[in-house]
Batch of 3 targets.
Target 1
Amino acid sequence: MTQEKEGKWNIDIGASVGDTLAAIWNYTDDFVLCIEPVKKFLELLTDNVQRFGINDKVCLEQAFITDNMNQIFQTEISEKGTTVKKITQDVCHAVSGKTLDCLIKENGLALSEIFRIMK
C-alpha cells in the first residue's frame, strides 16, 4: 500500500545554482521554494529555472536563514566556492536575514504544506 504524502512543497536552503532542484525535478510534481543568499548564485539559479521551464513551480528568495532578523549580512564566496556570511552595517551590499517561519509565511504557505526541507 502506498501512503499519500501530505506536503506539496519542498524547501531548498542554500539552493546555489539549482543543482538539487535539477536532481529532483523529474521525480516530483511538488512546488519548490529555493532560498539562496548569494546574488551571483541566485541570478544563475533564476536563469536555470527559466531554462528548465519550471517558473510556475518554483519560488526564489534571496535571504539568509537565521534566528535573528535584526541583523543584516554580507555574502562572501570562499576559495572553495562556498558562502560565508558576515554581519555588516553596509546596507548597500546587505542580504536580509529571515527565519524559515517568516519565509514560509511570506510565500503564503502553511506548515502542513511542507513535505521536505533540504539543505
Target 2
Amino acid sequence: MIGLIKSGQHYHKMNSFAALADPTRRQIIEALAQGPLSSGEIAGRFEISAPAISQHLKALRVARLVRVRVEAQWRIYELDRQGIDGLLEWIQSLKCDSLS
C-alpha cells in the first residue's frame, strides 16, 4: 500500500483544492484574474460581510493562490502566479497519453 507523502508540497495542493471548492473563493480568483484589487474593492463585489471576505482571502493566501501587499492604508490582493503555476504543473504531470 502506498502511503501519503506528508510534504509541504502535498499540503499546498490539498489547501489549494479545499480553497477552490468554495464558490465565493472561485469568484474572488476570477475577479483577481482581471488585475489586483484592494480588500474593499473585493468586498464591494459580494453581499457578505467584510469579515467573511477576510476569511476567504486568508484561505486563498494560505493556499498560495493569492498574495497581498500593503500600499499606504490599503491591502492589495493579486493572484500568486508562482503558487498557481505550481498547482497547474502538478495537474499537468498527471495527464497521461491515454487521456489525449
Target 3
Amino acid sequence: MPSESSVAQGRSGRLRDSYCLVSRRAVQPNAVSGRASQVQRSLSEKIIRNTLFNSVGFAWDFLIRFLLVPYVVAHLGQTRSAIWAFLGVFTAPFMLLDFGVESSFVKYIAEHYARKEHDGINRVVSTGLAFYLVFGIVVSLIVFVGADAFVRLSSLEPGLASEGAAALRLTAVSFLLINLVKVFESVFSGVQRMEITNLVRIAISVPYVALTVLFLERQMGICGLMWRDILVTGIQLVAVALCAFKVLPNLKLRLVSFVDRETFGKLFRFGIKVHVSRISLIVNLHFDKFLIAGFLDRSFGAGLVLFYDLATRVLSMARMFPALLFSATLPATSELAAQGEAERVYELLRRSTKYVMFLGAPMMAVVIVAAPALVAAWMGTGYDLSAQSIQILAMGYLALCLGGAVGSVVQGIGRPGIQVKAALFALVVHVVLGVAVVCGLRSNASRAFYGILCSTSVALVASLLYYYAVTLKAFGRSVAQFCADALWKPLVVCAVLGAGMSAAGPVFGLVTRQTRLGNIGLVLGYTV
C-alpha cells in the first residue's frame, strides 16, 4: 500500500497537470503551518502591492493623456485631429490578429517561475519575441504597401492624404515596438513585479510630454506625433528589457534554440480561447448599436445611437476602477495552481470577487442615482435619454466587472474554456433577446430602445451566473454558497448608499424630487 505522503504527492501532481481545482480533502484548521501562513501573507502582499502600482500607473497615464488632448487638438486642428484619432482605430483590428498569444505569456511565465523552471521562462519569452517580431514585420509590410490605397478610401484632400499615409506607415513601426514591449512587461507580471512596469511607464511620460510639445511647436503635425510614439516606445523597450534581465538573471534570449513548436502551440492553444472570449465581449458591447441604428426607425435611430454611446462611455470609465482590483490576480492564481493549492485559489476568487463588489456595487449605485446630474454636467441639457440608459445598463456593467474577476482566476488555473463558454452564452442570450425585442417592438422606437437596453443587462447578468456555476463546479462549491459568502454584504452597502443618496439627493441637487422614488426603486431592484 502506498504511503499517505506518496498519495498526496500524486494528487498534487495530477492537480497541477489537469488544473482541476476540486478540493478532494477538507482542510483542517491545524493543517496550515507557520511557513504556509507566511507564504500566504507574502502572496497577499504581492497582490496588494501590484494592485496599488497598477492603480497609480493607470491614474497617471490617464491624467497625462487627458491633459494633453486639448493641447494636441488645438495645434493639429479638427481635421488632422480626426485623422490622428482614426489612426488608433485603424491599428485595433491588427491587435486582434495575434489570436490572443499575448494573454498566455503571464500565465505560463508565472507557472514556470513558481516551479523555478528557468528554461521554461526562456522558451516562453524567446518564442513570444520571435512571434511578435515576425508578426510585426508582416503587419508593417502590409501597411507600408497598402497605406496609400487605404487613405484614398477615406476621401481626404491630396495634401492631407499624403500626410495621413506617411503617419500610417509610422504607426506600423510603433505597432511593432509596442508588441515587443508587451512581451517583456509580461515577464514582470508573471513574476509579480508589476511596479517595474508602472514605474517605467511613469518615467517615460517625461519624454512623451516633452516630445509632444517639441514636435507640435515645430509644426510637425501628425507625423510628429507618430515619431514621438516610435521614440518613446523605443526607450520603453530598452528600459523594460534591461529591467527584465535584472529581475531574472537567468533570462536568456535565443531565437533559435529556445524557440520551438511545442511552446508556441501551448501559447496559441491557451491564447485562442481567451481571444474568442474577448471577441465575444466586443460583439456583446457593440451589438446594441447595430440593432438601434439598423432596425429601429431610421429617422430616429442615429440619435438613439448617440444617446446609447454616451451612456456606455460613462459606464466603461466607471468599470475601469473596480477592474484594477483583479489586475494582479492572474499571476498569483497561476503560482498557486502550479503548487496545487486548490483551497487558496478558491479563497483568492472569493476575496477578489468580494473586493470588486465592495468597490463596484456602491460605485454603480452612485452612478445610477447621480446619472442625470453627471450627464448634464458633462454634456449639458437634452441628454436625459443617456442618463436613463446609464441607469438601465449599470447592472450589466457591474456583471462585467465581476466576470473579469472570475476570468483572471480561470485563466490562471489554465481553464480558459470556461471563459469561452460564458462569453458565448452571453452572446447567444443577448442576440436572441435583442432580436426578439426588435421584432416585437419595432413599431415603437422608444419602447424598443428601452427593451434593447434591458436585454443587454439581462444577458450580462445571466452569463455571470452561468460563469459562476461552471467555475464553482470546478471547486466543488455552489453558486448560492458563494453568493452568500462573497456578495451579500456589498449588496447591502449598495442598497443603503443608493437609497440614502436618492433620499438626500434633492438637497444637494443630485436628483429631483420627481425621480427620487424611481431611483430608490432602481437601486433596491438591482440589489434584489
